[in-house]
Design brief:
Blueprint (H helix, E strand, L loop, with lengths): L2 H44 L11 H4 L22 H4 L10
Length: 97
């Protein structure tokens, strides 16, 4: 067997696994619909707020409820203390400039 044949076989096998992962994801979404509906009902009954994404800083916990200046608690040019601040962009200001 030539090296190119081995590479082609390996590539086809990986593409088959990729297709299988997509098929499994589609099957999993269908199975999770009932569970998601039950969780949505629980959130509505308990009156929960937005999803908590990170536990570090208050401006990354609930991005929809963050104030504009919480990321700059020390001063406007302060370095961010938390790694999650680099993953989550600052909130979009919707007021007057």
């Amino acid at each position: 067997m030539r090296r190119s044949d081995a590479f082609l076989t390996f590539t086809v096998a990986l593409l088959g696994l990729l297709g299988a992962s997509f098929a499994d994801a589609v099957r999993g979404v269908g199975a999770a619909q009932q569970s998601l509906a039950a969780k949505a009902d629980m959130v509505e009954q308990l009156g929960l707020t937005d999803l908590v994404l990170f536990t570090e800083a208050r401006y990354t916990r609930h991005p929809s409820q963050a104030d504009l200046h919480s990321a700059f608690q020390d001063h406007p040019f302060a370095m961010d203390h938390f790694p999650s601040g680099s993953l989550l962009p600052p909130p979009i200001w919707k007021g007057r400039p």
